[in-house]
Protein: PLP-dependent transferase
Amino acid sequence: MEKETKCIHAGYEPKNGEPRMIPIIQSTTFKYDTSEDMGKLFDLEASGYFYSRLQNPTTDMVAAKIAALEGGTAALLTSSGQAANFFSVFNIAGSGDHVIASSAIYGGTFNLFNVTMRKMGLDFTFLDPDCSEEELNAAFRPNTKAVFGESIANPSLKVFDFEVWAKAAHSHGVPLIVDNTFATPINCRPFEWGADIVTHSTTKYMDGHDATVGGAVVDSGKFDWMEHKEKFPGLCTPDESYHGIVYAQKFGNAGAYITKATVQLMRDLGSVQAPVNAYMLNLGLESLAVRMERHCSNALAVAEFLEQNENVAWVNYPGLADNQYYRRAQKYMNGGTCGVVSFGVKGGRPAAEKFMKNLHLAMIATHVADARTCVLHPASSTHRQMTDEELAAGGVPADLVRLSVGIENVSDIIADLKQALSSL
Ligand SMILES: *Cc1c(COP(=O)(O)O)cnc(C)c1O
Structure:
């Protein structure tokens, strides 16, 4: 199946007389005839459901669709993108371990790694994603367990050099984890470029309608855990909390990582996605391919309009031919990038604030990546405690406006931007 077809059909194949649509199995628990039947499930000798904190048929069907879209072997839905990124790393790294991450990542992920996971005893090195190969290779330590990046960084829109980072990770015997939220599997398939694990905030384009917070972790099934078993004892030695099971032996490369994340992390942490949320996420997934096409064509037209406007100082969109990341985007994402554009308003902070006030269609929201065009001026909202100098040093200049281009008719979006800019 091609990706557009997978969006509709992957993950669920109704049999004779069964529901046409992925059904919502809104049940915490599942009934068995004998304790022996249930015992087999607990021993992971048989597959089936017993309690929705670990697995639920609805969430599994939607996870299977996302796995198919990414070209992976298995996937797990989580309650949010934050939980997905936490699980992706914590499944293979713990106290005393080290992780290398791109510095161009979502702020929430940066805090998760740099504050909360440090408190748990993990150490992180953050590197400019465009650093030299020498610098990247020099960051590895004997206790490095994973490398982490974002396919298109939120909000800097830097495009990740998958091949360079995958090569460095693999030559040091560790997997590459990529957050593919902004590009989505419609525009980029990280597994084809060397990534081993993919994560998503499904809250963004996958849901796409501002309806439900969620996340996903997908395994490519390609990383050979047993070949590096001294680094990954959690997968390659007996799990005492699970009757001494050795995940990499019992489930192989295709199943070990997601099985462990489900029966161990999800069992203990419970960051589960509700079946009804997974049902809504699936509605978004069905139209993902069509919507991404429109998000990208609208965003490109908006970026081209902004480049020509006399009140705009600069435009950053990796789909523009003069963008620093254009060639890399063409290589890794030849169908399009994402719908997020950032730009600077001439006149700095006061001009940007005035521009924001004068918008009618584009809504002010911290959210990005859904059907409705929305806009954020970090210097007067999320980053308002910072001075202009601090903002510039942090790569979020005071004139920066982040625009998430929706799927409305592009002439309405451009007309709104045009009138707000002409008021300056
Ligand atoms: C929003 C976002 C997250 C966090 O996801 P939530 O669903 O809000 O928890 C992680 N990564 C990226 C790239 C995001 O944009």
